[in-house]
Amino acid sequence: MQFKFRASEDRGGADHGWLKTFHTFSFASYYHPQYEQFGCLRVINEDRVAPKTGFPTHPHREAEIFSYIISGELSHKDTMGNVETMKRGDIQMTSGGTGIAHSEYNDHPTNPVHFLQIWALPNKRGLEPKYLTRHFTDERKKDRLAHIVAPVGYEGVQEVRECEGLTPIHAPLHFFASLLSPSKSVTHTLLPSINGKATKKLYIQLIQSSGYNTESAAKDGKNGPLVQISSGAQSAKLGEGDGVFITSGKTGEEVIIENVGNRVGEVVVFEMDDE
């Protein structure tokens, strides 16, 4: 495997007052030719939306879009009649397909909402638009990797509105999350390719849970989580908001994730087939 570290402060982003956001990939007014997408991943925005504000109704098509709620409440409305308020532990998947419009608001009077907004490129065009939700408790993520999103057709995936299983996505993408305690570690074993590809890609990020901060996050672990990512001779240390891009992975290889800081860290792992 090959590791490429990217510091939190090197992400794009902006403070619009009502919205404070970081962009892992080129988005809106932020453009970086080396970070337009990674495998099928096209967008990872770490968003914080102020109370009583949000994104008005806007259209999407030919994109798999899911929100991972970290704190606060996010209210969703769409043109298929779905109305829902999501809280921590909830994950919402919108399969844009031939076209859908939705709005996302923070209707809470005092508390901001913090969430990851993630877009993946679908493996098939012209799909019927769909909206799905799942819930994953903190207990399911505590010092383990909870498998949250998996491709349609993967064992345990059901394309129904609500159930206890994995969240389906029409892309060769798996998504995991862990609440990792200090001195604890988890091991991720790369899964078989669904497209018969020889190599896999991974992107691992430590969520910036301490707050919106455009300066460098603490990297010594004395004031927060610090996560060591390693596989063979390759390694990277992630402070809050940092990420590592991993290429040339193969099925069955292992990546070790260890919290070497002094506070619980929320880690997200994306695994996808190579192009």
Automatic annotation (TrEMBL):
Source taxon at top rank: Eukaryota
UniProt-listed Gene3D superfamilies: Jelly Rolls (2.60.120.10)
Positions of the Pirin N-terminal domain: 7-119
Family, similarity comment: Belongs to the pirin family.
Name used for this protein in its record: Pirin
Organism: Kwoniella dejecticola CBS 10117
